Amino acid sequence: MKNNRKSDYSGFKRKLYIRLVCIGIAAPILIYLFYRRFWHRRGGNWLVSVFRSLFRISDEEAHRLYTIIFRGNITFFWIAAILVLFFLLLWVILNWFTGYFDAINRGIDGLLSDGDISLPPEMAATERKLNEVRSELHKRAVDAQLAEQRKNDLVMYLAHDIRTPLTSVIGYLSLLSEAPDMPAEQRARYVGITLDKAYRLEKMINEFFEITRYNLQQITLEKEKIDLYYMLVQLTDEFTPLLKEHGNTAVLDVDEDLAVYGDPDRLARVFQNILKNAAAYSNPDTEIRITAWEADDAVVIVFRNHGKTIPREKLSSLFEKFYRLDTARTSDTGGAGLGLAIAKEIVTLHGGTISADSQDETVEFVIRLPRP
User: Fold this and answer.
1) How many other CB atoms are found less than 10 A from the CB of residue 38?
2) 358 in Cβ contact with 309 (< 8 Å)
3) Which end of the chain is more exposed for a tag (fewer CB within 10 A), N or C?
4) Is residue 289 within 8 Å of residue 251, measured between CB atoms?
5) Residue 298: is its pLDDT beyond 60?
6) In this predicted model, what pLDDT tens digit does every residue of 10-31 receive, in sequence order?
7) CATH of 224-370, one of 3.30.565.10, 3.30.428.10, 3.40.50.880, 3.40.50.10380
């Protein structure tokens, strides 16, 4: 990389070096030509004439003054003339050189515009870097705009979802309040519906809190050795009621001695988020298979479920904040679109990776964590 950077500016350095060498050679040559063309056999007489007129002295005294001042120091004067000309040419070179800084300044101003940044050919490396920065800034601005739009859409969806169960809760409670002599069976049914809507309302409010926590929380890890097999067994037991609602089952294929080193609470949340996602998007009456094994330098955990194939171009977006596959959000599927984004952040903090793959009606999430 270092050698590449040196070669990036080789054209500019070569041009600068050639110009410096040229003025070093040109200065004495120009002085010599000036001497041969204008000064030789003329300059002395001209100086004598100047001294005679300036000081109002005789021709003999002017010759003596010329000999003392100039002829006695002729080498010094010609060297001084060469140096003066050299620095004048150097000043021209510096003006040319500072023109590149003006071009760079224009390029920096161009970072805020939509057009490509164009610099002199010698500054091709700088031009490329500035264009890369401009592209990256544009990409970040677009990503931020998309994230903000997704968040706004999410808030709108959640607000709509909250209004629906809240209206039902208020309606059924009003009926119960207005009819104290309502039959017990009907009352029990209304109370059950009200409780169900209240639970749904609680879930929506929790999603709002989830958004706030994700945006403000600074995750810190407290690592220890974790019995991975036991953690996954607990996880599948906790999710059994939710999986049964969809007719799904969780199948565990993990060595009982398998362990990882990490924050148990955070990793548990990673597995919960992935399993929750699998439960939400699995086909009914299918199994969700969890497998794990030791690779050369990592522990690999795979969650595989049967569901609608995810287009390849959308796989990388699964781990973005507020991203949801079902843009037409329903009340019964999915959450705030934060689960997989949080999972990726936690896995990354552990020095691991998480990826997704989907084909032939199968979705697979692969987590790789450093071995303990």
Assistant:
1) 10
2) yes
3) N
4) yes
5) yes
6) 766 777 778 778 878 887 888 7
7) 3.30.565.10
Determine how β-strand 362-370 pairs with β-strand 224-227.
Answer: unpaired
pLDDT at 332: 46
SS3 of residue 29 by DSSP: helix
Q: Are strands 259-262 and 224-227 parallel, antiparallel or unpaired?
A: antiparallel
The more confident residue out of 365 and 41 is 365
Burial of residue 337, with CB atoms counted within 10 A of its CB: 0-12 exposed, 13-18 middle, 19 or more buried: buried
pLDDT tens digits for range 312-341: 877 777 777 655 555 444 444 445 556 787
State the virtual CA torsion across 35, 40, 44, 45 in degrees, nearest 10.
Answer: -130
Pinpoint the residues of the chain covered by CATH 3.30.565.10: 224-370
Two tokens at 324?
A: 């949801």
Q: Looking at the chain, which residues constitute the CATH 1.10.287.130 domain(s)?
A: 145-216
Residue 36 tokens read as 């041969």
Would the pTM count as exceeding 0.85? no
Whether the pLDDT of residue 41 is over 50: the answer is yes
CA angle 34, 38, 44 (to 5 degrees): 110
Residue 329 neighbours by CB under 8 Å, 6+ apart: 157, 161
Determine the Cα–Cα distance for residues 49 and 363; give it in Å rounded to an integer: 101
